[in-house]
Amino acid sequence: MSDTPTQIKKSTNYVFGWGIFWVFATAGVAFGPKNLWNFNTWITIIAVVIHVGIGLVLIRALKQNLLAMDELHRKIHLDAMAWSLGIGLVLGCTYEMLEDIKLITFQPEIPHLILTMCLVYVAGVIQGIRKYQ
To answer: What Cα–Cα distance (Å) separates residue 127 from each residue in 12, 62, 65, 131?
Structure first.
C-alpha cells in the first residue's frame, strides 16, 4: 500500500485512461456491427472479446487505485461503492419488473441503471468527503 499523493494521482489517471478506453470500446461494440462492419459475426465476436478484456483491465486498475489510497479515502470509496451496488441491485430488479407488471409502457434500458449507479457513487463520495472533513 502506498498513500503518497503522487502514487494516488498516477493510479487515478490510470483508471481514467482505461475508463475512457472502455467507453470507446463500448461504443464500438454498440455501434460497430451496424455502422462499420455490417453485422459480420467474427468481427463482432472479436470486438466483444476486446471490450470484455478492456473491462477486466479497468477493474484491475480500479482495485489498484483503491489499494493506493489511505484508509480514510478507501473507506469513503468503498462506502460509496456499497451504496451504488445496493441501490443498483434493488432499483435494477424493480425497474425490470415494472414493465412485466405493466406499470411502465417502455422497455427498461441498462443505461438508466448505469447512470443511476454512477450518480449514487458520486453522491456517496461527496457525502463521505464532507462527513470526514
So the answer is: 20, 20, 20, 6
Rounded CA-CA distance 30/111 in Å is 12
DSSP string, 27-57: HHHHHHHHHTSTT-HHHHHHHHHHHHHHHHH
Q: Express each pLDDT in 65-85 by its tens digit.
A: 999 999 999 999 999 999 999
**Residue 34 corresponds to which cell in the numbers above?**
451496424
pTM of the model: 0.81
Between CA 72 and CA 50, with CA 90 as vertex, the angle to 5 degrees is 75
Cβ 44 vs Cβ 37: under 8 Å: yes
Distance between CA atoms of 123 and 127, rounded to whole angstroms? 6
Alpha carbon distances (Å) from 67 to 57, 62, 105:
15, 9, 44
